[in-house]
Amino acid sequence: MAVTYRLGLPALASMPAGRRPLVSPGEVRPGIVHLGLGAFHRAHQAVYTEAAVAASGGNWGIVGVAPRSRDVLDRLREQDRLYSVLTVGGPVDEARAVGILAGLGHAAGDPYGVVAAIADPGIRIVSLTVTEKAYRLDPSGRLLLDDELRAQLTGLAPPTTVPALLARAVLARRIAGAGPLTVLCCDNLQGNGPRIRGLVEQALEVAGAALPDDVAFPATMVDRIVPATSADHRRRAALALGADDAVPVVAEPFTQWVIEDRFPGGRPDWAAAGAVLTDDVTPWEMLKLRALNAVHSATAYLGALAGRELIADSLEMPGLTGVLRRFVADEVALTVRPPAGVTVIGYGETALTRFANRELGHRNLQVAMDGTQKLPHRLLGTVRDLRALGARPCWAGLFLAAWMRFARGYADSGATLPLDDPLSGRIRQVLDAAPDTPDGVVTALLTLREVFPESLAGDDVLRRELLHWYTELDRHGAEATIGALS
Ligand code: CS2
């Protein structure tokens, strides 16, 4: 089929209803400012919000703010703020245009404009998907203050970072009398609601102010696999949509959102769109981080070491799914109380099936990035809880050892592996100063207090597991180490 149209308002008229947005683009007034206009938000919260407004109405259009890159903003402007979601892995490709974006902003280029947008009384929610590192928190929730952030918080520099944007926006709203606000963190952080509340409190303290009473920070658990869009996905999106989209996002059919229902300024009717509103997100959040994200990371590190490209390729390593299942059954299930009606093992099985979706083209290296920021939330809680029970973190130890091998920057073949991590400089520094032996590497990386708290770094049982598995991986490589376990 020849694709003649570029996605935009004029193209909508010729699209079948099932591919058109659920709301009339541009007609829903803004109620949400979202920081982090990446693929995940566009395939998750934006889709739920559009469906909620279509079902129940409300001024809940989204002002999408890109933190750094302008590319996606320029493309979206050219397309009248429309983009499409391509769902792959079902019987056929499905694509639909989304029209809930009611405005666009750029944090790096116009931070004061973003603050002003949040201070508008029409805005009642600020949501975020900015990835773990952008919050500038250590694993214990302490704000990592440097000169740049201090200058931003005290008004000496433009507020381009997330803590400064949030703090200045909260202050601007108070001055404007803009009314109650909900700050909704949609990143994979343990206790994401209270954590961001702590962040804003600390940031405001540096700015010499206190947190107003009418700002809430509900916790959420977000879930949908949304990899980077490839050229092939873009081609397939155009075919399924019948219009060429420069910025489609690709996602799996599965989607889930569990939200703590605490919104002092109101919220879209997300339940009408399939989200679960509850008074306690913790069991969902723990289950997801520990039985899904930890397994994802383990798959990525072991697969990357073995020279495999995609998550789906890694899962084909003989023995790997068996090891991942044993981790979920023997270690995660021991430390997690699942939500009512859900079993940890059943949940883990679903995750494995989803990871095997090859159409997603999800690359190991995408999941492997930012390990120092992700592992404390995904894996170290399980290790800590196992140790508190007097249990041995066997499989968790294997996965951490795989990250340690990965952090050296080489696959088992000797090929270079890029270390995309905000702490890559620190990692290089401690590794360069240590012998390249199992003991040298494990000891060096355990000194990273930004990742391993003293209580874990000094734990002999964990250290023994790490040394054992690191030595196995070093001697035999990931493929053979895992193969021998089946
Ligand atoms: C992944 C997540 O990149 C990663 O680290 O584990 O983005 C994962 O795909 C999502 O959390 C699934 O909801």
Summarize the structure in words:
Strand 3 and strand 4 form a beta hairpin. The chain has two domains: 270 residues, NAD(P)-binding Rossmann-like Domain (Rossmann fold, 3-Layer(aba) Sandwich), CATH 3.40.50.720; 202 residues, N-(1-d-carboxylethyl)-l-norvaline Dehydrogenase, domain 2 (Orthogonal Bundle). Helix content is 46%, strand content 11%. The strands form three sheets. It has a six-stranded parallel β-sheet, with helices on both faces. The chain has 486 residues and is an alpha/beta fold. The chain binds D-mannonic acid. D-mannonic acid binds next to helix 10 and helix 14. The site of D-mannonic acid (CS2) has 9 residues, from helix 10 and helix 14.
Q: In CATH terms, what is the architecture of the largest domain? A: 3-Layer(aba) Sandwich
Radius of gyration from the alpha-carbon trace, in angstroms = 23 Å
Helix content: 40-55%
The number of distinct helices, counting runs of at least 4 residues, comes to 20
Top-tier CATH class of the largest domain: Alpha Beta
Give the bound compounds.
D-mannonic acid
Q: Order of strands across the biggest sheet?
A: 5-2-1-6-7-8
Shape: globular
Profile the largest sheet. 6 strands, parallel
Calculate the mean pLDDT score and round it: 97
Instruction: Count every beta strand, where a strand is a DSSP E run of 2 or more residues.
Output: 12
The end-to-end span amounts to 47 Å
Counted up, domains total 2
The CATH superfamily of the largest domain is identified as NAD(P)-binding Rossmann-like Domain
Instruction: Tell me the CATH topology of the largest domain.
Output: Rossmann fold
> In what range is the share of β-strand residues?
5-15%
